Amino acid sequence: MSSPWPPNVRRLLLVAFAVVAVEALALIALAVADLASLTSSRVAIGVGVAVFLIVYGGTQLVAAVLLLRGRWGARGPIIASQLVQLGIAWNLRDVDPDVLVVPRLALLVALAAVVVLVCVLAPPVNRSVMEREAAEAAETAGETSDDA
């Protein structure tokens, strides 16, 4: 399968894809773990959280695949989810300092989000997208003038 992106842009998007895929799979794994630990007193909230995590993780994964395949509109959901994760990381820093794993988790979530944002918003990526959009607009304009 040939890539719709130049090699330097494809490398950046592959890095973003890999990080988003790990995030998405982690969300889905959390959903499965939540479902496995359901108790009768928290069925409704447990199922609700699990469904949300599965949908959120699945949406991230689909958007990352579409972006690699040249669907630039998939960039918006990826950027939005990374901004949400930066907010989550910011909130995790205020959790009980005696729980050592939480600050590390906050750092990991923030680092992953920054890596994805840097890759998806890098100047070569933006330049490539603008060139593709201009070419598509010219092609569309040519089709409409042929129809007239």
Overview of this protein structure:
The chain is mainly α. The protein is 80% helix and 0% strand. It is built from 5 helices and no strands. It starts with 6 loop residues before the first helix and ends with a helix. The mean pLDDT is 86.
Task: Outline the fold blueprint.
Elements: H1 7-36, H2 43-68, H3 75-92, H4 101-120, H5 123-147
Helix pairs in contact: 1-2, 1-4, 2-3, 3-4
Distance between the termini: 36 Å
The coarse overall form would be elongated
Determine the mean pLDDT.
86
Query: Strand tally, please?
Result: 0
Which stretches are low in confidence, meaning pLDDT under 50 for 5 or more residues running?
Answer: none
User: Could you tell me the radius of gyration in angstroms?
Assistant: 19 Å
Order of helices and strands: HHHHH
Largest sheet: none
Kindly state the percentage of residues in helix.
over 70%
How does the helix and strand content classify structurally? mainly alpha
Question: What's the number of helices?
Answer: 5
Q: In percent, how much strand structure appears in the residues?
A: under 5%
